[in-house]
Amino acid sequence: MRQELPSWWRDIDRSIRLSITDYEFIIARLEMLLAGTSDKFSRFSSLNSRRWKNLLEEAKLAKEQVERSLALAATRRRDASAIGLIPPDNQELAARARVVSAKFHLLGELAQKRMARIRSELRQLGRPRNRPSMKVFPSQIDVHI
């Protein structure tokens, strides 16, 4: 059973819980996108890479929101201690924040490794195509592909 929170701490607790929940939700979406399809080349197609980039940006914003909530909690904790109130200590929220932060870093590393592997496989498929080059005179166009 959860201990009843003092009224001056409820908004902080709610802010931390919501920001961590939002962060966990975005991380879950990143995990699903990274799992993606079985086709390694369509996994990071332009659409997926755009979605991945957008989700990473959302995750960074969610992480910043968690940090702001924790900073506000630290300020409220200091203020409460200064006037003699004892702020509640919530180890569960701290543990959730650590877990979701570790997941975010792990997903970033996995995505970088997967992108490097896909790039190397694409390089091995053949030499890259050259851009068309044209000679000076339009009547003598030489296109190399």
SSE arrangement:
Elements: H1 7-35, H2 40-43, H3 46-82, H4 91-125
Helix pairs in contact: 1-3, 1-4
Keywords:
145 residues; mainly alpha; Methane Monooxygenase Hydroxylase, Chain G, domain 1
What does this structure look like?
The chain has four helices and no strands. The protein has 145 residues and is mainly alpha-helical. It has a single domain, classed as Methane Monooxygenase Hydroxylase, Chain G, domain 1 (Up-down Bundle). Helix 1 packs antiparallel against helix 3 and helix 1 runs parallel beside helix 4.
Write a brief caption for the model.
By secondary structure, the protein is an all-alpha fold. It is built from four helices and no strands.
Could you give the order of the helices and strands? HHHH
CATH topology: Methane Monooxygenase Hydroxylase, Chain G, domain 1
What general outline do the C-alpha atoms trace? elongated
Taken as a percent bin, the fraction of beta residues is under 5%
The CATH class assignment is: Mainly Alpha
User: Between the first and last Cα atoms, what is the distance in angstroms?
Assistant: 70 Å
